[in-house]
Amino acid sequence: MNQKQFLRPIVDAAALSAPLADYNTADAVEYLNALPLPQATNTLAALSLPRAVKLLEAPELQHAGALIAALPPARAAALLGLMADDRATDIVHELDDAERARLIPLLAPEARRSIQLLLSYPPNTAGALMTTEFVAVPADWTVAQTMQHIREVERSRETVYAIYVLDPHSRQLLQVVTMRRLITGEPEDAILAVAQVNPPVTVNPLLDQEEVAQLIRRHDLLAIPVVDAQQHMLGIVTVDDILDALIDESTEDVHKFGGVEALDKPYMQIGFLEMLRKRAGWLSVLFLGEMLTASAMQHYEDELARAVVLTLFIPLIMSSGGNSGSQATSLLIRSLALRELRLRDWWKVALRELPTGVVLGAILGLLAIVRITIWQLAGLHDYGEHWKLLAVTIGAALVGIVTFGSLSGSMLPFVLKRLGFDPASASAPFVATLVDVTGLVIYFSIAAMILGGTLL
Amino acid sequence: MNQKQFLRPIVDAAALSAPLADYNTADAVEYLNALPLPQATNTLAALSLPRAVKLLEAPELQHAGALIAALPPARAAALLGLMADDRATDIVHELDDAERARLIPLLAPEARRSIQLLLSYPPNTAGALMTTEFVAVPADWTVAQTMQHIREVERSRETVYAIYVLDPHSRQLLQVVTMRRLITGEPEDAILAVAQVNPPVTVNPLLDQEEVAQLIRRHDLLAIPVVDAQQHMLGIVTVDDILDALIDESTEDVHKFGGVEALDKPYMQIGFLEMLRKRAGWLSVLFLGEMLTASAMQHYEDELARAVVLTLFIPLIMSSGGNSGSQATSLLIRSLALRELRLRDWWKVALRELPTGVVLGAILGLLAIVRITIWQLAGLHDYGEHWKLLAVTIGAALVGIVTFGSLSGSMLPFVLKRLGFDPASASAPFVATLVDVTGLVIYFSIAAMILGGTLL
């Protein structure tokens, strides 16, 4: 910002909104995001209502709740009333109770009712994601009547490309007409004449957003109707809401797989303490689990004292178990999320992971044997007189541990799903911890078998 | 399948297509997927052309390439010509050279040209994802002319909801008109009168699909035009293609983060050898890297022999470094993918991870000190006369290692991006390997400092 701009009084509405005049919505949002909150609020207050609504509706706008809360309540309520109700609900979600109590009574009755309905659904469900602003017409209308209706309500509807045909009496959903089919119809045709032949694909408001996304994708829809048990329409979930939801969900999945509680804000916007809380929890739980490795090691302390050479390979062996486990887990998490595999398919997976693990373990075991042999023969390190037996021990332990890692890594998502958790909660660190303790036991048991009487 | 169905001759077309008659496309695709290839081919051959096209266009259909290759060439070419050209191109991608050479000459010239154009773009780019079947009209047309044109071409266009207005002479893209705006226009209005005010958002054919998705999302589009350097339209990428691409990409990201080469087929469809290849490569590379831990341990073998008690905590300490690293990596991978952070922001992240790592390390260090103290005082294990110094060593090592893990885990995605790799290639096992070797060095250095003269 140059000095001249800096000297402008910040209450000058024209000056404040001037830089935004040439921007499209996405760029204007970026500009607002870069301003400190008080200035961003003043800028938003200086814009025309329709422009401000456009910016507030952009999911990329940060601190939308704080902006609404900082605006004069009458203006804030006007903006919320003009916005798409699903986005308005998202913003109301960000407000604290006092702010909600102040704003909601100021809303127009219709906007208030739909926002209160949407607020009542749990997050990440079709109900929470839907908008109530769709186009519905009675089944006794013609194409021309429908077209005229759409022209009149177009501005207040999130999409007009899917038109829902309701029973004129019971108001139950009968059919869906796409705009494509509508415009090819003759004006005097009955609306049902251009409707799709198949019964409409609908969802229950409590369905998880990931399943909604799968349905939208499978049936190539632009929107999916959300209905109650009596087939009355509650709203629609549009493809762009699903796009946003999927991007958020895949962020969440990567975070979970990395062993962090999902962050709902960009990295740089999370406060220091919040960031600690999101990470310390899991890290401590894993640490407590991993403490069992210390107990396992204590159990083998005598063996360790007699054969220090065994300790040299502990990190190598443990990490191989963890790595093969995290590979298997990542494969199965996605297969379960994409519904390629069902819970009952667990044994098919186990039957595949068993030989896969054995072969992978054999490959790593061979590498280890070659490594030890080369170091020993080239004089790089002396593993003692029983180095051949040691090499065989390491090789055999790797086969056992990688097999165990692959098997348990692939079964963990099934177990979590069976227990009612999200299979994506099976994080790489979680699998590694699970495999580490058992890995040590496998290692020392094999060492006792092969080296008993010589080194041990 | 019951016996009666089994006894039907498999060449009976009516019998083959009969079970599909009542299914919608998605269910029919599931039915076909469950059949062995020869039967699926016969079923597909028995369907009407439009029905077969619908099934082949479903991205969920498996082995579409094998099905097309197994059909009589004339029918295969007819089906490819009738399909959306982007999907037809995907299927041609699955064919081997001989099959392509046999089929492509049989295609109608227009279909052949557009498939050959699409085949020429690298995978995962706007060019590879786009369709050439869009609606474009010259800028001197009226709303009524445009509407009439859409009614005529509707069936052969992937979307008619975005209409591209071209300069009548140069054929450069001037504006975009949405169907929403078109139907609100008066028939005699010029098409430009209902066009959007802002210049159209366009992409280059070589842009990565993830960036295309971000633009579609940011600007809330149903399709985005792909243009060459002279603003001539090459095609459009629609939101449903992006939805498919995003789901594939998030699968790929989870696989990569788990340390597997991305699978392009469902888990159960990957052959045993292919599965081994996808996993053995990374696993072996990580194993070779992890071998450095054995070298590091060898270097400290004397210390280990003198103080076996130190080895008890090696797995615990190493895994804590890996876990904190994989947390940090998962956070930064997503922030970079979502463009929340740029390459130049690396130092801001480093400045945050440093104190975060110190505090997280202190929490774990404290847990470890408490654990050792309890075990020692309760007589569960004897850590020797210097157990207090040992506890301090473990605590201090955890602070050092968790800080190092957080810092290097967060910097790795930046380094990969700087080197031109996908930041999502920073897998949890990769980070763990990176942190393990350094972790050991940190541990033994701190041990030497604190325990030098007593235990060491």
Automatic annotation (TrEMBL), chains A, B:
- In Swiss-Prot or TrEMBL terms, this protein is called Magnesium transporter MgtE
Per the record, GO CC terms?
A: plasma membrane
Write out the annotated subcellular location. Answer: Cell membrane; Membrane
Top-level taxon of origin: Bacteria
Database matches in PROSITE patterns: CBS
Question: CDD domains given for it?
Answer: CBS_pair_Mg_transporter
| Molecular-function annotations in GO | magnesium ion transmembrane transporter activity; metal ion binding
Record bears the keyword Protein biosynthesis: no
Q: Write the record's keywords in alphabetical order, separated by commas.
A: CBS domain, Cell membrane, Magnesium, Membrane, Metal-binding, Transmembrane, Transmembrane helix, Transport
Family label? Belongs to the SLC41A transporter family.
User: Boundaries of each CBS domain copy?
Assistant: 130-194, 196-252
Record-linked Pfam families: CBS, MgtE, MgtE_N
The regions listed as transmembrane in this protein's record are 354-377, 389-416, 428-451
Does the record bear Amino-acid biosynthesis in its keywords?
no
Origin species? Stenotrophomonas terrae
Record's bilayer topology term: Multi-pass membrane protein
**What function does the entry list?**
Acts as a magnesium transporter.
Task: Give the quaternary structure.
Answer: Homodimer.
